[in-house]
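Field guide to reading this record: the first block holds the primary sequence, the second block holds the structure written as discrete tokens, and the final block holds curator observations. Each block starts with its own label. This record concerns SDR family oxidoreductase, catalogued under organism Streptosporangium longisporum.

BLOCK 1 — SEQUENCE
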Amino acid sequence: MSSPETRVALVTGTNRGSGLAIAEDLHDRGYRVFSLNRSPAGRDRLGEHRCDLADPAQIRSAVGRVLQEAGRLDVCVSNAVDRVLDPIADLDEADWDRLVAVNLSAGFHLLKAVLPALRASQGLFVAMGSHAATRFFEGGAAYSATKAGLKALVETLLLEERRNGVRACLVSPGAIANLDGDGSPHKMSTRSVARCVGAIVDTWPRDLVVGEIEIRPSGLPEPPVIGIDRLLHV
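BLOCK 2 — STRUCTURE
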């Protein structure tokens, strides 16, 4: 069991990219970090629990194990995401269903599982959204639709649970260099995104809630672009 003074964070999708960077940033800030990953990264400091976020039963079970081990929860970051960028005419129905399950429904089931603990700690629920929720592009039907739904979920959570001491924040980033070896000067680094999330979690006053924060790369490429690369131009 954690001591009452130990802050506890649960992050989904920490085996790579921005999720890994967020987990490591929170660990460096003194949080005891737990992770839900379909494919574990094998890093002890991540406190990993194997969980397929497309399966609500696995989410409930994994969260239950985390809460039993940690004894409390102060922050939950819903980060895990799946992405298929096919045109509607070519988009497989199974891919659509999986993106809805992982990108949207998993956030709901995760929230339901952690909400009592966040009420008890007057904690914070952070969801990693995307500019794709409002800036649409060719091939982005499934990805954009799920991110738009996530935006609605977080805003409704904020309206309903703020009176119970639970804060909620949607982080809406533009293009992130999430893939290994991606050093594009026109994308945000995962470390920079993690520092932004960490600041919201750890340093902003508790009597203030950041309902949504939008972050963008500081550099712009030359147009024209199509598809998901449109997110580089906002």
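BLOCK 3 — OBSERVATIONS
The first strand starts at residue 8 and ends at 12.
Strands lie at 8-12, 32-37, 48-50, 75-78, 124-128, 167-173, 212-215.
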